[in-house]
């Protein structure tokens, strides 16, 4: 392999982490390899979707994962553990293999490799050692089995893993902060219909346990309040995690200043070590909803009136010119008759 190398890590989507799932990369022998990784006990898969562990500071425990090779030939998998996080789409993933863990992933001990025969499963022990100084709260991590497919210049890592919800017992803190980052108004191009107010916000988990953030937004206008609407499904936030989302409020007339209000409510995950969720974050920002469509319609009407008036004036002037010409021609004809000689008839 030359100096040019790259590691591409497959996303550990929630569905992949939660149940048996396979991928089909190319192995060194150019044969398709598919495998799955699931929570297990010492005898094999135990039906869990994720590994949930609650330990005291300084406490140790042993968990297991089952690596199943669905391929037609034996495969040697690399086994790794690392810190977990949520992607922008909200799916769970692990830090890249080349990034050293600094939190929960550093507390997991796994063997470096596991060789699994064709159509067989191997149970891999996972030793968990929580430091004495560990902060109470959630420390997400993950365990993955991976293979490398070697090319002429690129090594591609493909991995499938299991999510580990590692919680340190103690006085954890649930906290959420939110900020309105922008408010925009999207008018309807139908001048006789209201538009939409779009409230963009950022939510940050400032506590030590996972929470889910759900938001509602409304608007206050000179015509009264517009009812609050929801901003979609709750979004999970791990400690230190942040998310940017938006809420669309329909039925807002563009009549100048609009008070955009936002409520971001934290919801504790089921089984959380914190019993009381923090209060919702309430925010208000004044924005402007300009009647662009109505102004455009007014300009079109004014232009139409001006054009019609100009046309009418031209027609009136033309008519007056024709009448004046007709009167002048009539007068000239009358004067011509008056100058004709008069002869006696015998």
TrEMBL record:
<feature type="signal peptide">
    <location>
        <begin position="1"/>
        <end position="28"/>
    </location>
</feature>
<keyword id="KW-0732">Signal</keyword>
<feature type="transmembrane region" description="Helical">
    <location>
        <begin position="288"/>
        <end position="308"/>
    </location>
</feature>
<keyword id="KW-0812">Transmembrane</keyword>
<keyword id="KW-1133">Transmembrane helix</keyword>
<keyword id="KW-0472">Membrane</keyword>
<protein>
    <recommendedName>
        <fullName>DUF916 domain-containing protein</fullName>
    </recommendedName>
</protein>
């Amino acid at each position: 392999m030359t100096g040019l190398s790259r590691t591409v890590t497959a996303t550990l989507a929630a569905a992949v982490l939660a149940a048996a799932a396979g991928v089909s990369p190319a192995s060194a022998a150019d044969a398709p390899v598919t495998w799955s990784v699931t929570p297990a006990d010492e005898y094999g898969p135990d039906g869990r979707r994720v590994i949930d562990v609650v330990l005291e500071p300084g406490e140790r425990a042993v968990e297991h994962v089952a690596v199943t090779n669905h391929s037609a030939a034996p495969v040697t998998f690399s086994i790794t553990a690392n810190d977990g996080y949520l992607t922008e789409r909200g799916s769970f993933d692990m830090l890249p293999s080349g990034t050293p863990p600094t939190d929960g992933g550093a507390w997991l001990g796994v063997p470096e490799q596991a060789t699994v025969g064709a159509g067989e499963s191997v149970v891999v022990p996972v030793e968990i050692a929580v430091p004495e100084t560990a902060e109470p709260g959630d420390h997400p991590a993950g365990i993955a089995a991976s293979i490398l497919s070697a090319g002429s210049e690129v090594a591609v890592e493909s991995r499938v893993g299991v999510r580990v919800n590692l919680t340190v017992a103690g006085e954890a803190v649930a906290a959420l902060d939110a900020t309105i980052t922008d408010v925009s108004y999207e008018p309807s191009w139908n001048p006789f219909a209201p538009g939409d107010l779009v409230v963009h916000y950022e939510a940050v988990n400032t506590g030590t346990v996972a929470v889910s953030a759900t938001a509602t937004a409304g608007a206050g206008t000179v015509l009264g309040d517009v009812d609050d609407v929801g901003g979609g499904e709750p979004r999970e936030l791990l400690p230190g995690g942040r998310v940017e989302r938006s809420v669309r409020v329909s039925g807002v007339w563009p009549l100048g200043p609009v008070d955009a209000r936002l409520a971001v409510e934290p919801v504790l995950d089921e089984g959380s070590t914190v019993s009381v969720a923090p209060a919702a974050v309430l925010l208000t920002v004044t924005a402007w909803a300009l009647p662009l469509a109505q102004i455009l319609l007014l300009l079109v009407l004014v232009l139409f009136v001006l054009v019609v008036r100009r046309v009418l004036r031209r027609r009136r002037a033309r008519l007056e010119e024709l009448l004046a010409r007709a009167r002048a021609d009539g007068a000239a004809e009358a004067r011509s008759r008056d100058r004709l000689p008069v002869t006696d008839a015998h």
